[in-house]
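Recall the central idea of this unit: under ordinary conditions, the amino acid sequence of a chain determines the structure it adopts. In this exercise we apply that idea directly, starting from the sequence alone.
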Amino acid sequence: MRAIDIIAKKRDKGELSRQEIDFFVQGYANGEIPDYQAAAWTMAVLLNGMTAQETTDLTLAIVASGETIDLTQVVPVAVDKHSTGGVGDKTTLVVEPLVSACGLPVGKMSGRGLGFTGGTLDKMESIPGFNVELTTEAFLSQIKDVGLVLAGQTANLAPADGKLYALRDVTATVDSVPLIASSIMSKKIAGGAHGIVLDVKSGLGAFMETLQEARELAALMVDIARLAGRKAVALLSDMNQPLGHAVGNALEVKEAIATLHGGGPADFKGHCLEVAAHMLTLGGVAENVEAAAPILDEALEKGLAWQRFRELVIAQGGDVSYVDDPNLLPKASLIESVPAPRSGYLEGIHAREIGEAAVILGAGRAKKADPIDHAVGVEVHHKVGDYVEEGQALFTIHANDQAKLAEARPRLLDAHTFSDDPVEPLPLFYGVIW
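Accordingly, the structure predicted from this sequence is:
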């Protein structure tokens, strides 16, 4: 078997066999197939696509490139969630302890932010001492003892994915749906998930800007799960405006804590409850999402989810006093509320522009090596469809640098557009794919 023949077959729109895909992925992972041949192959995949079976075979080949975690040795069933990324998406911080408090253990490996989308690990590191670098043994021990763990991905988990992603990033092949789907699902399967709730975002602040693109990606990932012997459900959610109000690491932790206490923005709370309901359903705790709702409400109202969040922080070395009193979390030295320039209905709050402004302030990274300022960010005070009076606070900037604040302010203003006529609020979800 030769790499050049596999490249040519995909170039000519042929369907690759499991053996051909295994050969190519293993060869690239161990350095026998060079970057230039892998680049040609990824471009052929981008241009000609892959069937669901090919994409599943690719996913499992990536899984086989490294170690896998067997969670069944510590928990009877493992359910995970994955978000395709967005602005103000601190869902994991609420959903994971909420689901765990309902009796379904959750072991989650998350990532860091890059570009305008935030990273769960960066948010949790706003809490002094919180350790995200756990060994596989520590990961398994904590999910067994605490029922909840939130850590970074180990280097040995699906290493071929990291190598392929770095290549795609410099060869204009990031946008390939089969390559995106296999990247996401390989890490979930290698991490031991039996059931996966996929939060696939669509809109201006999402990787998939159109609903059609999001639906295509969601359907393919659900197909991969089925063909790989796993269960999955995909929720198509809106990301045209930020989720909740807070955008920025410590600000988002504070908002998550408020939500775990039963407060928080209505859209964010509603989003979390829907995702959690599907996780309980996949995990067999509830018969369906309707039956899951009262279970989740009780876990919130009785403080069980909040208690589980505290236990997570303590278990991973975080200073729990910072979550007991969120005012101790990092604060920006410059806080400025910006008034609405006119009265009217909010027609749009461009999520990507809000996220990019947060990066300018230092809340995100333009490059992987960039440092993060946990204190800075933006609070967006309104939602699409709200009526806002001229002079009313439109958003609040949290900054540690006057020049960055001045640069972010006009961008944030431009991200808000107004209408004289009433505007329909945006939906939280556009559909579910089983």
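Residues 71-324 form a domain with the Pyrimidine Nucleoside Phosphorylase; Chain A, domain 2 fold (CATH 3.40.1030.10).
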